[in-house]
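notes to self, project folder thing:

trying the whole complex as one job this time. last attempt i did each chain seperately and stitching them together was a nightmare. two parts in total, labels are on each line so i dont mix them up again. if this works i'll redo the older ones the same way
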Amino acid sequence: MAKKRSKRAAKKSAARSSGRKARAVSTERGAQPKGVINGWEDDPGAGAQPSGGQVLQRPVPVLRDQPFSTRIVNPSSAPEAKPHPPGTAEFRYWAAAEALRRGSDFWGALVPGTSWEVGAVLPVDLDFGVDLNAFYDREGLKFFHGSAAGRTVFSGESPDIVCHELGHALLDSFKPQLFDAASIEVAAFHESFGDMSAILSALQLSSVREGVLAETGGVLRRSSRLSRLAEQLGWAIRQSVPSAVEPDCLRNAVNTFFYRDPDTLPTTAPATSLSSEPHSFSRVFTGAFFEALAGMLATTSSRDEAALLQVSKDMGAILVQGIRAASVVPTFMSQVAASMLAVAAARFSAQGYEAPLRSGFVRHGILPPSMAVAATHATARIAALAATPSQSKTLPTLQLSVAEYGLGVPSIVVYAAAEPKRLQVTGAALAVGAAPSPGEDQAAKSFFEDLLRRGRLKIPRAGKGAAETVRAAAPQTHETHTHELRREGKHMVLRRVRIDCGFAHH
Amino acid sequence: MPRINQQALKTELAKRGFESISIKRELPGGRVEVDANKLHPVHDEGGEAVYAPVPVSLSVELDGRGKVKSIAGDTPKPAAVADAARYMKTLRDSGQLAIAGEGTPARGATHQIERDAQGRQVLRRKRFSII
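result (full assembly):
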């Protein structure tokens, strides 16, 4: 429990209604001070360990500079700006300051003319009391210290945590309606944005880009120091409540969580499962985002750290514009996703970002494949052909309309589970009782969509909007798809080519 | 149709009980699309309603002088109200909802039920947390 509390800033309401936020923000910067300071690259911890983070040297950050000025109010005065050793209060101060400046610079370039919801300067308290936590409220950012297994952890020295909280403040600056909206997906998205802010801000460091590319062998969607958020705080919480966090961090952006209606989820669950609690549910969107980011890098020719920097900036721009355009409704995540796809199609078509974005959102269930295609190809619906199914010696065939998936063909032939039922049984529903038994058409379509979502379908001469569902980071050395669409006579036929028992995610 | 005075429109909508107002776009014919939150009863506690800020999408019609002529969409949709009620249950179950006047709020509490100027119990976010 936090021990300290502060009073709400005086006259805040009056200031907020004065039209302050509409004013353009100066982008002037003061002279850069000489010298360097020490800080952490992303976190003091590494994997499951509370230590082992990478120390880096950076130019002295100037917090009062635009864009998005911040001010550390506790401690009230800055220590000498020079490289201090980890474990000292001076080191923690400059580690936090460096992360604040980096996050402000990154987002400031993407939302020009915007200022904090709290005013021109965001106050930051680096030690607000005892807790294993960190907050953003409409007064500022608040960080804490807490003990675990004989070690004291300061949340404010982790750039992951600083940039997560800064992300809340940033999102509040350009979409303030989300702060108070009583909605599970809105709250979960705010948490996801915090984690995405930590990831994108970390990628502004060349050493992080080089490190993560080396660690993952260039396959960004593998779990890495970039995807693992707040390792040290995760370790500290794990000492008392192991099930509350991931085994090697607080949250991991590389995950396989698939969207579910929050109404069907429990209100709390261990970290291994999804619940409607906002931090837990946020992982669905963060997972899709991270997979899309990895896929966007894969579309570049060089796939090097310079390309990763550009991709991170482009992703930030797509995210901000997608959020701005999204309607605030109970299914907010899908609104943002669809808006992001539209932005990518309109502004980044040359880069081919729609495909990896679609893949991420489809594979995490945020958008169904048909809606993902419709978001960028709204007029691409083609009437289905009425054709005679091909003959089969095994299962009956069905003509399945697939026009909405943008595969370049209006319909395909599938071998469907359409034999007469011998027993009238069906699977269990998520809540109570039996799930409705789908018709053959629906079952075949569900299976086909599942192949698309899992990236297990190879499509020859795929039309636009089709190849995206092939996994962004599929091994270069061998094929991993299980099904193909083959032209057989006049028809495109869905054929299984292999059974893959491997773990599909990596 | 002259460009609307956004600040005047926000002030006018605030008087009508809307919060977190943002002008989304201006449409032909003097209509403006607005996103906002509106307090709506979502839960009953001891026979007394608890209100929560529920998102609404408004279509505001302005007259020739830029005054509000009519507002469509000012009632939250049933899905949004149900979402808010579920959200409140999630907050309560996960220890993120503190009740004003009930002593020390739970660790990690992000929301509080407060009484507003009209004496209503209202769910309010106080902060975001990392966990």
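what i see at first glance: The longest strand of chain B covers residues 31-45.
need to look closer tmrw
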